[in-house]
Amino acid sequence: GEPSGLLYPQQNRLRNVMDLSGLWEFQLDPREEGQAQGWFSALPAPRQIPVPCSWNDLFDDAKNYLDLAWYLHRVWVPSGWQGQRVFLRVGSANYAARVWVNGTLVTEHQGGHLPFAAEVTRQLAWDRETVIAIAVENKQLVERVPPGPGPGGGGVAGVAGWYPATTYDFFPYAGLHRQVWLYSVPAAAHIDDITTVPAIDGSDGVVTVKVAAAGGYAGTGKVRLDAIEADLQFRSGVAEATLRVPSARLWSPQDPHLYPLTVTLTEGQRVTDAYSLDIGIRTVAVRGDQLLLNGQPIKLTGFGKHEDFPLSGRALNLPMWIRDYELLKWVGANSYRASHYPYAEEAMQLADRMGFLVINEIPAVGLNFENPEELTAQHLAQCQKQLRELIARDKNHPSTIMWCVSNEPMSGPPLGAAPPVPAAVASGTRFFRQMYDEARRLDGTRPVTLVRVQGGTMEWLGIFDVACVNAYYGWYTEPGQLDLAQQALARDLDEVHRTWGKPVIVTEFGTDTLPGTHNQPPEMWTEEYQVEFIRRYLDVAARRPFMVGMHIWNFADFKTGQGTMRAGAMNHKGVFTRDRRPKMAAHFLRERWAGKDGRK
Ligand code: GCB
């Protein structure tokens, strides 16, 4: 079924929230004996760990550890919550988690980066502490998404054989990466889900609001948008209303205006539940080879990113997010791609507020279609589940302008090293048609895309609304030869456009750049080469009206596994260093994108 309970936890007059961030007990379980020995009640030899945080940068013996580990926390549930329904919500457990409350297994979840919740009203204690235990592992298994290395694993990193072995080019950070919360909702009936769909009619905004209330609720409610109100009449737990905002102030990067929306359930004059969120009134569409925001063509300037920082790893890091948004503004970016997995909910809220456009991606990186059909079927089930969870979580964010269903799926070796394998192409085509249909079924309002590896399958781009391609001419191919690289890029983009007539985005292009390394004339790994490479790519795009976006790989240097291609176990394609200092390219982009020449 559809996921429920993914509304961001909210404290108000009728609901309660308790954020369990802080120090928890932690223990590795390499022999997987914990469950049989009752570790969900007490850990035999715990140490302390912060939640949220990846475990890998904290403990030497856990650096490359991806097997089972236990988290345990004791909490008093406030007695004022009695009489309400209480849920436990895990923001992101990377990758697989099992959750116990006072000794009872209450839920399991697979796939990091997305929240899950379980009702724990019957398991928690009112007269003593409640024990919460979460067992997490991040094994790189071939049937998972992203797939682990092996017959079904693809990806450059898989091919290169790095340590720890992954099919993707970022460190496999593990652990509880976002907050764990307890929250309560009214027992009689509560708002379980809200879907808002904005439209524009002349100068008016028209917002359709669909509300799901738990337990087949058949009562009444209200929805208020700014000063406009409408009644809700629920049938079998569902109600809908349409609100018209005269002369609406449309959401855009220039004016990211948000309207407050509140949904209530009512019994006569009495409000029995309430939930508020801020929404933007804006539309996204594809017309011909243009991408439209509020009916006007828009070009994306920005980056592929990662959630990555020293010590905290892949965990929620609000200082990092605030600084990154400051730097995105500073450099003149209007957008980024949430490569290669969904980012923190707070990051999406900030993007709404600050006017960033986000290509929102599920963790489907490293897929390879040279696989037995049953493995592909397992991957499809995982990808569809992740898509359902992502859209349930992020559908109300104006900043999300596109869903991306995969990064660099492969039907043969990358970089055009050999022609695609026909059976793999056909298998991928079936797969991505189903992914596209599922995305449109869940959300008919946003374009859907897929990111092609350089030299990868052209056919798959035809299934989607926008063609996204990654390009490393001048780096992995044509090394050091930027004239050739520029020609190869132009040929590639023109062919994609000629074949499909769709808007095209280069979602990745970049060079590893060691900060402080210089040469004239520009040479690979120098700051000059990064600037020159980016300049050439932007020039090629600027001459092509169908190019609707240029996202540099990457915003910042980020941690990878260890291997011959990654100096210091880092990908150095950042325009900023890992600690967010600008390389020469950052100043160049600020001049080009923000029109600031550095002297002002
Ligand atoms: C890619 C991948 C990205 C890598 C990048 C690189 O194509 O999508 O995850 O980090 O290339 O730097 O090799």
UniProtKB/TrEMBL annotation:
PROSITE patterns, per the entry: TAT
A matching Pfam family: Glyco_hydro_2_C
Keyword Hydrolase: yes
Domain Glycoside hydrolase family 2 catalytic stretches: 284-594
Residue intervals of the Glycoside hydrolase family 2 immunoglobulin-like beta-sandwich domain: 189-282
Secretion signal span: none
GO biological process: carbohydrate metabolic process; glucuronoside catabolic process
Name under which the protein is recorded: Beta-glucuronidase
Protein source organism: Microvirga aerophila
